[in-house]
């Protein structure tokens, strides 16, 4: 009997689906949180020491283990056990010092890996799994969602697979996927699932619109961050917030009840796994998380608590539009008026009647500066026209 200990998110459960396809009833699968993996593996080691099991593999996927458990796995192999850990998180790369661990962040062609894709490749390579079209497509959907490549390729099916994962119980999702990928033809949702997903997407849209109005903006260390409290739809929420507020370096989503902090970014120059690691967490460059420790709670909840959300940009303007040759007007909660205008081929900022430095070569750079420094928003046409009338004689 084989044993698989894996994460309890889509990528981790994807490993469970692959394992079921490879071994059927000859594998026991346990889904774990980041906090529970070390006790789970330790209990397995204790049971093995009391009653050694011959022939079975211990697989750990999509999760890292502590130094203490590392040492226990070394002894486990010395005593005749078989183990393989497969992970794709940068924070687990140190485990590659062990012959029983494979931690790979990216393939040679530049694609990001997932635990499901690494586990699938390993089982196929060692002839423990017979691949087919449907299973390969399922693995790729999981990989694209977990690495956020689905956004770049506009692969909505990958995102919808994760939606379905949260709509069903874990066991039901696993059973449905195992049955589906064994059919060998291409992967597809059922008619019932399509209807279910349509209803869920409407619910997600309403939730995201509400949370967008609750986001506050501040600096944590040297990064400009948007902070929102939410218990659901973290991926969808962070995706939409990142697109709506591109001037922010990353989005921080607090789940106070679950004592978790999720970090997401749409930018290549920001690695949120490094930020999460500073609070005892980890993850990927664009998607990471950590426990909501005292330090994280102070930085992301206590200190920003008194801040008010910035208003959304006016979206029905005819005159005060971004990049306009007549200038563009913003304001913020403090009542400051920020006017961007062109002069001598560059964009300049008039802040409350005073021309401020620096000047910018492109409008996008100037707007990013105004939104980051002043937490400002694009005002409506009527306020813009009044501003121009008041300042017409001064410029």
From TrEMBL:
InterPro entries linked to this entry: DHH_sf, NrnB_C, Nucleotide_metab_enz
All copies of domain Oligoribonuclease NrnB C-terminal, residue ranges: 327-393
Pfam families xref list: NrnB_C (PF26386)
Name of this chain's protein: Oligoribonuclease
Origin species: Paenibacillus antri
């Amino acid at each position: 009997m084989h044993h698989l200990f894996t994460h309890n998110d889509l990528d981790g459960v994807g490993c469970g689906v692959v394992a079921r396809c490879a071994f059927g009833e000859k594998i026991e699968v346990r889904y774990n949180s980041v906090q529970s993996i070390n006790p789970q593996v330790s209990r397995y080691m204790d049971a093995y020491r009391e009653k050694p099991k011959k022939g079975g593999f211990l697989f750990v996927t999509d999760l890292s283990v502590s130094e203490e458990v590392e040492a226990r796995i070394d002894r486990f192999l010395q005593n005749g056990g078989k183990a393989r850990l497969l992970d794709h998180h940068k924070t687990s790369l140190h485990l590659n010092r062990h012959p029983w661990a494979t931690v790979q962040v990216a393939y040679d062609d530049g694609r990001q890996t997932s635990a499901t894709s690494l586990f699938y490749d390993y089982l196929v390579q060692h002839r423990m799994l017979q691949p087919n079209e449907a299973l390969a497509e399922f693995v790729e959907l999981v990989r694209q969602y977990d690495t956020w490549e689905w956004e770049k390729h506009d692969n909505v099916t990958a995102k919808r697979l994760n939606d379905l994962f949260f709509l069903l119980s874990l066991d039901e999702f696993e059973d449905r996927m195992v049955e589906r990928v064994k059919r060998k033809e291409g992967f597809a949702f059922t008619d019932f699932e399509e209807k279910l997903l349509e209803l869920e997407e409407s619910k997600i849209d309403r939730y995201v619109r509400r949370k967008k109005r609750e986001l506050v903006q501040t600096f944590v260390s040297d990064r400009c961050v948007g902070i929102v409290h939410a218990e659901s739809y973290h991926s969808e929420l962070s995706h939409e917030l990142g697109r709506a507020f591109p001037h922010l370096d990353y989005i921080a989503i607090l789940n106070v009840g679950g004592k978790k902090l999720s970090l997401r970014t749409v930018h290549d120059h920001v690695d949120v796994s490094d930020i999460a690691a500073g609070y005892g967490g980890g993850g990927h460059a664009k998607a990471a998380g950590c426990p909501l420790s005292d330090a994280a709670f102070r930085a992301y909840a206590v200190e920003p608590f008194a801040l008010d959300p910035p208003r959304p940009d006016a979206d029905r303007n005819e005159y005060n539009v971004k990049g306009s040759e007549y200038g563009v007007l913003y304001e913020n909660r403090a009542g400051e008026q920020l006017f961007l205008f062109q002069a001598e081929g560059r964009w300049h900022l008039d802040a409350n009647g005073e021309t401020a430095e620096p000047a910018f070569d492109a409008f996008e750079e100037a707007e990013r500066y105004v939104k980051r420094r002043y937490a400002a928003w694009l005002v409506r046409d009527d306020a813009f026209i009044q501003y121009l009338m008041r300042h017409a004689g001064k410029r």
